[in-house]
Amino acid sequence: MKYHRVLVEAIVFALQQIFNENRQADKVIEQVLKSNKKWGSRDRAFIAENTYEIVRWWRLLKFVSNINCVKVEEDALFWQIFGSWRVLQGDKLPEWNEFSKLNPKEILARKEEAKETRKIRESIPDWMDAIGEQELGEKWDGELHAMNHQASVVLRTNTLKTNKLDLKKAFREIGIDTETLPNVADALVLPKRANVFSTELFKKGLFEVQDAGSQLIASFLDVHAGMRVIDACAGAGGKTLHLATLMENKGRIIAMDVEDYKLQELQRRAKRNGIGNVETKLIEAKTIKRLRESADRLLLDVPCSGLGVLRRNPDAKWKLKSDFLEKIKQTQAEIITNYSKMLKHGGKMVYATCSILPSESEAQVQKFITQNPEYQLIEEKRTSPANDGFDGFYMALIERK
Ligand SMILES: C[S@@+](CC[C@H](N)C(=O)[O-])C[C@H]1O[C@@H](n2cnc3c(N)ncnc32)[C@H](O)[C@@H]1O
Question: Known Pfam families for this protein (predicted)?
Fold first, then answer.
């Protein structure tokens, strides 16, 4: 494969930003791609895919490159890591100075050696591997392996504006193939990746990009047109928009969060989707108390470790710290205990996480139910990267007596 030096420079710059400036991979890649308007779609895909894959395989790549420092700082080492990655992909490296120290045979031999140690082979920090094994036992191997594969692009049809089959046809007309997914009503999956955000179909609000597992959560809440619904950790509204379509744009949704910029993004998305039944509310000291017993349905899509969506956010492997996990569990316990008071008696709520760890999910719900007997667990569901190819979500449907 022939590389263009400028593209590899862009990848090295992106990696520096992600690892040394502690910036989010998706934001860095977006900025890098915007920096040169002349790059075509292949160049853009080359930069984005190689950067994401190098982040995903960071620990393994350091190992096969024989780089032992904790923090990689020099440009030269980033070039070597890129070179090792391409060797693992079967490429013959160009005779550039930057690759002169790399020995492909040695790289491949070290890859064989890495197979013996899961945390190196699967490229994950020690503490995360230990927690995964402790909480999931034998299942951890399979989930971890599955989370190292690139996730598919999945769309959710906006049924307020179109239907799945018409959307599929409209994509076909612009040369993009999509497939339906059994058991996920409005989902279309792309067998081949494409930039769907630049299409007119997206600008018209005919779909949102949303993992299949995530699409099951709003449906799990059993909402109906005309209800009063609170989405208490709404963020930029992935699930709020879905709730609004399930409610046929009727009734009222209060979408709340502690971050105002996310709610502003939610409003922009709601407008594009033709949604008019959502009101956003920034959470302040008395917000929860004022809304006591006011909701027919309540969604608690709580902040979590994100250990179910590593396929999409591989940089979280290196950015997450074990003490954060402890703190976030505390926040989850506070949210389920305090926010559940917003539910009417006879109403239903869903507690959801994008984590495969039971301590953030089943265990939180069990503890809450035990301490608050007026709430009753109706049903729990999990999606699994290993078993169904979806991201790893957890959802619990709970009723208030
Ligand atoms: C998993 S994300 C939500 C994703 C969103 N529901 C979606 O579908 O796109 C969790 C959200 O909880 C918010 N959050 C963090 N602490 C919170 C708190 N104490 N109360 C409410 N929301 C909180 C975060 O800002 C974040 O947007």
Answer: Methyltr_RsmB-F (PF01189), RsmF-B_ferredox (PF22458)
Whether 233 sits among the annotated catalytic residues: the reply is no
Right CATH for 153-209 from 3.30.110.30, 3.30.70.1170, 2.60.40.3230, 3.40.50.300 = 3.30.70.1170
The single residue of 69, 233, 304, 354 carrying the catalytic annotation is: 354
With a 6 A CB cut-off, is 247 part of the ligand 1 pocket? no
The segment(s) of the chain belonging to CATH 3.40.50.150 are: 212-400
- ipTM, two decimals, is 0.99
Architecture in CATH for domain 5-117: Orthogonal Bundle (1.10)
Q: How far is CA 8 from CA 45, 174, 206, in A?
A: 12, 31, 36
Per-residue pLDDT of 96-134, as tens digits, reads 999 999 999 999 999 999 999 999 999 999 999 999 999
8 Å CB contact between 119 and 125: yes
Question: Does this model's pTM top 0.80?
Answer: yes
- Bridge partners (DSSP) listed for residue 398: 349, 377
Q: Does domain 212-400 have CATH number 3.30.530.20?
A: no
- CA max distance for the chain: 71
Cβ-based burial of 208 (10 A; exposed 0-12, middle 13-18, buried ≥19): buried
Find the mean pLDDT for residues 340-361: 98
Query: Candidates 245, 257, 351: which one to mutate for ligand 1, based on the most atoms within 8 Å of Cβ?
Result: 257
Task: Give the tens place of pLDDT for each residue, 187-210.
Answer: 999 999 998 999 999 999 999 999
Ligand 1 atom showing the smallest separation from residue 304 Cα: 1
The answer, yes or no, to whether any atom of ligand 1 lies below 6 A from the CB of 235, is yes
